[in-house]
Amino acid sequence: VQLVESGGGLVQAGGSLRLSCVASGSTFSAMGWYRQAPGKQRELVAYIFSGGSTNYADSVKGRFTISGDSAKNTVYLQMNNLKPEDTAVYYCNGGSAYRNGYHSLNYWGQGTQVTVSS
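User: That's the sequence. What structure does it adopt?
Assistant: Structure tokens below.
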């Protein structure tokens, strides 16, 4: 199983980026995006179930949108109105649904750096 992310980079505050994650070798009933800033714990930013329902961390609601293309086995994270506090390494994760929530499985991408300058 392999998850490959792309789309990170450097952007000014207020700008946008779109992350992509292509999964190969398996399909997942749910997929998520995590991020980890220096000195902080990895946090779940957003996830999507195979049926299309989504959920977001409060810190990104209204600014980030997660979507998926099952034909391409790809999940996206559209990030708008980026803030300096969004700076982190973003990781794609393969997961499953568990008790109406997201259960992370041990399938991770290599991470992609997102840096937002003020």
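The chain has a mean pLDDT of 96.
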